[in-house]
Amino acid sequence: MTPASLLFRCAVAAMTLAAAASPAGAQGTKGSVYAQRYAELCASCHGANGRSDMAGTPVLAGQHSFYAITQLYLFREGRRDNPAMSAVARTMKDEDLRGFSDFIATLPAVPAPPPATPPDAARMARGQSLAQENRCLLCHGADLAGGQQVPRIAQQHEDYLQLTLQGFRTGKRPGYTQAMSEAVGRMSPEDLDTLAYYVARFPGAAAKPTSSPTR
Asked: Where is the Cytochrome c domain (predicted)?
């Protein structure tokens, strides 16, 4: 683990531990506050139910609180490069990072709408092989639903997956371990696109209960 990754993991841990000191009633009140703030600030891009229909904008439905708070922290600190998200996160206090991430964790996973055409069987088979060969299932789970610091990726938008995988391959996208960079660093651009194609159309990714908000 690099010093930088250790630093921001400790910072996120400190923020989540601080949340545990809040009384249960206060947590409930904060939940309704951040539900409203999400509707006002986030829903226009990410969707009211967390399943965005905007190109390049990730699905948040079914995502985990620890992962969400980590990404918001990275945006706020300038560690992830996205002008729109950085501008929003830059105004957030630690309490806001917790509030938004806890609310996101309450959004149940929403299956992708049926594709206009059936998935290409050969490409899906190749994508499945790539997912197995490159240890995707080891961290993200057999259902690609992830867990806490590991994101749910099943039926994420294909263009966002492509951009993310390319970012890890080139080092533009930070991670708190080297796992993703090592996994995709040996893959060709064509294989990255095929993997994104498969994950975006992952079969059987029905809605499942999300993780509990970070406490």
From this structure: 20-108, 122-203
